[in-house]
Amino acid sequence: MSRLAVPKTYKLFIGGAFPRSESGRTYEVRSADGGFLANAAKASRKDARDAVVAARGAVAGWAGATAYNRGQVLYRIAELLEGRRAQFTAEIEEAEGLTRAQAGAQVDEAIDRWVWYAGWADKFAQVAGNANPVAGPYFNISVPEPTGVVAIVAPQDSSLVGLVSAVAPALVAGNAVIVVASERFPLSAISLAEVLATSDVPKGVVNVLTGSPAEIAPWLASHSDVNALDLVGAGELDWVDLEIAAADTLKRVLRPEPGPDAAAPALDRIAAFTETKTVWHTKSLR
Amino acid sequence: MSFLEYAPAPESRAILSLRDEYGLFIDGEFVDGRGTPFQSVSPASEERIATIANANAADVDDAVAAARRAHDRVWSRMTGRDRGKYLFRIARLVQERARELAVAESLDNGKPIKESRDVDVPLVAAWFFYYAGWADKLDYAGLGANPKALGVAAQVIPWNFPLLMLAWKIAPALAAGNTVVLKPAETTPLTALIFAEIVQQADLPPGVVNIITGAGDTGAALVGHDGVDKVAFTGSTAVGRAIAKQVAGTHKKVTLELGGKAANIVFDDAPIDQAIEGIVNGIFFNQGHVCCAGSRLLVQESIHDEVVERLKQRLSTLRLGDPLDKNTDIGAINSREQLERIRELSDAGVAEGAERWSAPCEIPENGFWYAPTIFTNVQTSNRIAREEIFGPVLSVLTFRTPQEAIAKANNTPYGLSAGIWTDKGSRILAVADQLRAGVVWANTFNRFDPSSPFGGYKESGYGREGGRHGLGAYLSPASVTSSGRTAPRAVEASSAASGDEKPSKRTRRPARPAKKGAAK
């Protein structure tokens, strides 16, 4: 007799905890062949706002950590993901209807992107910063700093690699993130949250919401305590309205990117969520 | 005659040969505008200086079309070396005509000649000289090999540093290979129009630089024009917000350099003489018409009384009057409208319980003037501590600990600049780290340099001007997807595949999607 499996309850990931949606709502997630997979939490406006509060609270600590430390924490995510490779492969295979090899390749790619971005943590400031030869007795230096709280609508057509591609670069410089996962493929996002929760990422640095991006994104786009909005996966939404809402507090906005190349690894994606600070120091022998 | 009274020492206006009327500068020539012309007046005397053309929507079309032609046919095909040579030429011509430009600037804007002569115009030349050298070195701008110009840049600039803001906008845009349509502020078009003559003297190909004059509706038509690929704006946060909304959903790249409410933090160990001069420079430079002005003085409680006393003494020695007088420290407020705004906010300060003190100085009969003013007993919730006043008005607040200073400094939706005054180097670095501001001056204030990136955090805007960063604001990587070239293998393969099929600018613009039904 075969063993009866123990299914997992998928919840949200806010402030390092795994709450259900305060709204009590869930939605059915089905596999590519139509079978029932799980009831995912359907996040509400309140959940989004709670996530912003958690993210805001986490910015100072994460941005203030040394770049070396942030790099190690991001690398540790890759380590733990590698250890759970089989779990993620199976989850993606079932959800997206891919072959095992295709699903495995997506997991590998996601892991490798964590590694790539982890390595940037203590180099980005050297590449993006400058010593400026100003015409006067000043030591003048420009350095990138994190923008703050970044809200992301993850690419909607993949379970894991799109999510990782959007979240990882925002973390490199020290931002805290609220990410709205793929609506069709939300389960790997929550599984990734389990990895994050056990890989030294401080609570609140990454917050994962599942549910309807069309419903949640407007609350994030208009939230005054969100500093930047990544619409990479919002191509199917009324994203222009989101960009307009974001303009009220002059959020930095990245527009949607369609297709499988969305959020391809790039220095630009790190830079998009940083601010350049220039400091002028006087020089004097007196 | 007290020791403070000097004989008048006016800079001669004879160096100017102004026209009575100025047209729009489109495609290398001055043409008539189709809107209703307006007058530019001297804010110091309210005298008419010249009649200025007003660009309507059709004129904006013409200017953008000229810029597009110049971009596609000439400027984008020219070598970087030659683009650079044109910019070097412009830098030299600005130097050659420096005195004339300074006089025109002070006449039209109202700023003291010593500032236009010693700060604005030299920086204009420096800006063109700096970016001239970048034109053939774009591969080193940090965007990978062969970065591309964006195309036609729409640039809208304010009235506080008319020619300097023009240089901040045009120099990097041209170096990167863009062509521009620039709209100077309604009250200060004069030096931009003289600059158009310099463009002619430099023999710059027609259409590379177009200058159209007008008011806010001209600017809005320019920013919203479909033929524009890049928008660069310096001005108020309110207009910046409107622009961000206007360009939403388009392919346009945007940089916004907006308002500020900078904290100037003075610790009790600060070199006090320099600090007093720095505070004065921070808020009274250019009549306080500076987006990065140090309008909130945060002074450590133990030295508050001494600092305020010494500030009052120093302000009492400032000479307010004729902008063209070489002894003038404080010039005219740029417009009646701005003067009213300063008065309104200042009165609100009194109404909210702060104490106002104004330097005792004689106010000329004509023109727009505001005596240097200090508010003490200011609460963080007061409007004068929160809103940008853009005038010679300083709000003084106190703090006890560095943590309190940092918290108060950051307690604003703005984040453009900040100042720190202390003799302790390690404290400078630690405080600078925690200030959420794009430019931090330590033991100095209001310094600018073409090699030094400038721009804001939060609602002070986004993007940087100056330095390599300022150049990057006018470039995009060679191929959108090839930016993943340093990425893991799978991405490299996919980007190589798509690299040859870079969509054209027009098709790359994402269409506004049809409204979807509620997505489950």
Unreliable residue stretches of chain B = 481-520
Q: Please report the number of helical segments of chain B.
A: 17
Number of domains of chain B: 2
DSSP summary, beta strand count of chain A:
10
Q: Mean pLDDT of chain B, rounded to whole units?
A: 92
Tally the beta strands of chain B.
Answer: 20
| Major interchain interface with per-chain residue totals | A-B, 57 and 60 residues
C-alpha end-to-end distance of chain A: 87 Å
Largest sheet of chain B: 7 strands, mixed
CATH topology (fold) name of chain A: Aldehyde Dehydrogenase, Chain A, domain 1
- The largest beta-sheet of chain B arranges its strands as 14-15-16-13-12-17-18
Q: How can the largest sheet of chain A be summarized?
A: 5 strands, parallel
Chain oligomer state: heterodimer
Identify the CATH homologous superfamily of chain A: Aldehyde Dehydrogenase, Chain A, domain 1
Binned strand content of chain B = 15-25%
Protein name (chain B): Aldehyde dehydrogenase family protein
Family (chain B): Belongs to the aldehyde dehydrogenase family.
InterPro entries (chain B): Ald_DH/histidinol_DH, Ald_DH_C, Ald_DH_CS_GLU, Ald_DH_N, Aldehyde_DH_dom
Organism (chain B): Agromyces binzhouensis
